[in-house]
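Z., the sequence and structure:
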Amino acid sequence: MRAIPPIGLVVLLFMSCGEEKGQEFDGKITVSGELESVPDGQLIISEYNDDRISALDTLVIDSDGEFSYELTLESPNFYELDLFGEKTVRLALYDEDVQVFYNFQTEELEILGSQDSQLMLKIDELTTQYQEEGNALNTEFYEAMADKDQEKIQSIQEQAMELELNHAERVKGAIAEMEGSFAALAGLGMLNPRTDFNYMDSVIVDLGEKYPDMKLINSWKQELEELRALSIGQPAPEISLPNPEGETVSLSELRGKYVLVDFWAGWCKPCRDENPNVVRLYNKYKNEGFEVFGVSLDRTREMWVNAIEEDGLEWTQVSDLKYFNSEAAATYQINAIPATYMIDPEGNILAKDLRGKSLERKLEELFD
C-alpha cells in the first residue's frame, strides 16, 4: 500500500489549491463514448440531486456503438451512466467534455477527458476493493458463526475494524492526489465522520472556497456542523445519570483521568463479547490514570445489573434505563452499540469508537 501523507500535509495541499476561486464555467459539455458487445436494453444518464439520483434522458446509440449527448450544467455535479443495467459508470462533470469507452465482454472501462471523472474512478476502484475484501470477511464470519467458533469470530471482527481503517487511509491518499477536485466528495462519502470529522471538515472548507455555489458542498457543511460539538478536541458533553444504587453520578467527576465512555447494554452480544477485553485493559491501566464510565442502554435494571456482575465490570456504571431514548445516547448521537468515546484529563474528546486492538493501541500510546 502506498504511503499516506499526514493529514496536515493534505490540508496544506488543499489550501494551496483553494486559492483558485471562481473558474469560468460555460454551462455546456458533451458526454460521448463507444460501447462494444452491446446487449439489449437502454443507456440512461442520471443526475445526483439532494442525496437522490434522478434519470435525465435515454441516450441514442448508433450501429457502431457510439453515442453523444450535450449536457447543460448549472454547477459542478455528479452523474451516472447506466449501461443497459449491467454496468454503472459514475462521472464528476464540470467544465470538460468526457468520453466513456466500455467493452461488455471484457469488462474493460476507460474514461477520457474530464479529469474530475478520472479521479473519481480511482475512488470507485478503492470502493470495489473494499467491498470485495469485506465480502470475503463476511463469508468467514458466517462460517465461524455456524461453527460457534468464538475465537475466530472475534478475530474476524478485529480484521473488519482494521479493514475499515485501512480503507479510510487509502481514500485519504486518493483525495490528497486530487489537488482540490470536487471529485473528492465521492471519497468523503466513504469516510466515517465520527472518527474522521476534522479531516473531512478541512477538506469541505477548502472545496467550498473553490466551488462556492455547489449545493452538495453546502449540504456537507450543514451535516458536519451538526456533528461539530462531538468532534475530536471538543469538550465532552456532561453525562449525569443514576448508578445501580440510584445515586446520580456525573462524567465530570472523573476529570483528571483518561476516561473511556462506553455505551453498551446487557442485551447487546457484541458489547458483552468486548467486555473481557475492556476488563483486561482496565485492570492493566487503572492505576496509571485510566477509568471507564459505562452508560447502559438497557430497559430493565435486572438485565443491567446481572450483566455487570456476570462480566465483572468494576468501573462506574450509569443508566436511565430508556434504551436508545436515553438522554446520554441522544446527547452523544448514539444509534448503535457498542460505541465509545475516549476523554482526556481536561475533559475533551480524544478519540472515538475504540474497541479491541484499537483500544489497546491507544492505551499503549497513552501510558506505555
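The chain has three domains: 7-17+120-230, 28-113, 240-367. The mean pLDDT is 88.

Let me know what you think.
H.
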